[in-house]
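Ops channel
N.P.: pipeline sanity check, posting one input/output pair.
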């Protein structure tokens, strides 16, 4: 059975009614919005384009080793999760004059377990098999290890994103059709984006030159489908990580006309909708994630196997502004793009394989 991601307005009800038991689902507030990318562009200060980042306060331009040992707080509800999760930030490009304005992430909708109060941010999933079963007896799941990182998607993609990277137009509280491109009409509830990461590891490398080859992507649809077996080249089953973000595009809906203007939303690297991508850096404390993945039929909080914190506490976690550039208000260029704004040369140079 295929299962679509849950409608925010119906998520709680559906969870109580349906058999939805496998994995973790929790909110993380926004930690910072900066041009930093320690996974794809380690050491670059600043990186080529703007990201919205959540998670632990060890986040920096360069991150090696055990991230959890250096972090002292996290913007995630799971208080033992000092990982970092980030995506490119969405922008509105005014069809009349070509100027840009940053789009804010809408606060993560309240989920089960007292998680209301998130500020912007992402919804994070760690699933063992799919949303309805864990399949642990046939396919046990191994936690990521300190120093592990991966990316999914690429800002250089111009054709079509890999399956599992998608868009939905929230209208009248309904997420609507899943597509591989930006919605062509106005979305009164925002643009909903999803990023499914690959779950099969080679068991050796914490990273790879392209930040993806050490993983094998079994994702072949836009749903939380049952995970197929990992190949012999990448035999280790890891948790299936997924990010969901709702971008609050409603403030810009009166600034464009779908009948005469093309889609005015772009990612922070310009590019196209096919370039949607996301980054992950593992940072769970000790064996906290493994404990959760070893629990059978436990959704949201690992059946008490890991500790949670109030989002009012999570929201107090911060990092300093390393780049110190103006990213708000109307801008002539996207942050960091400047003279490369119309050519994409900077992105192509810094992201070439």
């Amino acid at each position: 059975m295929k299962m679509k991601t849950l409608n925010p307005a119906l998520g709680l009800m559906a969870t109580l009614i349906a058999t939805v038991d496998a994995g973790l689902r929790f909110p993380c507030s926004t930690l910072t919005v900066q041009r930093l990318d320690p996974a794809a562009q380690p050491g670059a200060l600043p990186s080529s384009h703007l990201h919205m980042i959540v998670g632990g306060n060890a986040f920096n331009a360069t991150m090696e080793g055990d991230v959890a040992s250096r972090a002292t707080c996290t913007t995630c509800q799971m208080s033992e999760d000092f990982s970092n999760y980030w995506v490119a930030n969405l922008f509105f490009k005014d069809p009349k004059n070509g100027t840009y304005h940053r789009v804010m992430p809408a606060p993560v909708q309240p989920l089960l377990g007292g998680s209301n109060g998130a500020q912007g941010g992402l919804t994070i999933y760690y699933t063992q098999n799919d949303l309805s079963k864990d399949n642990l007896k046939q396919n046990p799941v191994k936690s990521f290890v300190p120093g592990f990182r991966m990316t999914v998607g690429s800002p250089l993609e111009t054709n079509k994103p890999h399956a599992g990277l998608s868009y939905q137009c929230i209208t009248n509280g309904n997420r609507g059709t899943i597509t591989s491109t930006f919605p062509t009409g106005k979305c009164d509830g925002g643009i909903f984006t999803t990023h499914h990461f690959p779950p099969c590891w080679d068991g050796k490398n914490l990273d790879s030159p392209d930040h993806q080859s050490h993983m094998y992507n079994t994702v072949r649809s836009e749903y939380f489908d049952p995970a197929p077996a990992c190949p012999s080249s990448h035999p280790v089953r890891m948790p299936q990580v997924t990010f969901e973000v709702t971008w609050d595009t409603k403030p810009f809906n009166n600034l464009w006309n779908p009948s005469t203007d093309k889609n005015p939303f772009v990612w922070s690297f310009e590019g196209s909708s096919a370039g949607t991508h996301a980054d992950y850096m593992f940072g769970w404390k000790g064996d906290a994630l493994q404990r959760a993945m070893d629990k059978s039929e436990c959704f949201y909080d690992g059946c008490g196997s890991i500790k949670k914190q109030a989002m009012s506490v999570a929201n107090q976690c911060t990092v300093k502004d390393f780049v110190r550039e103006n990213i708000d208000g109307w801008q002539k260029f996207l942050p960091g793009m400047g003279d490369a704004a119309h050519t994409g040369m900077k992105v192509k140079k810094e992201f070439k394989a």
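N.P.: looks fine end to end. The first helix runs from residue 11 to 17.
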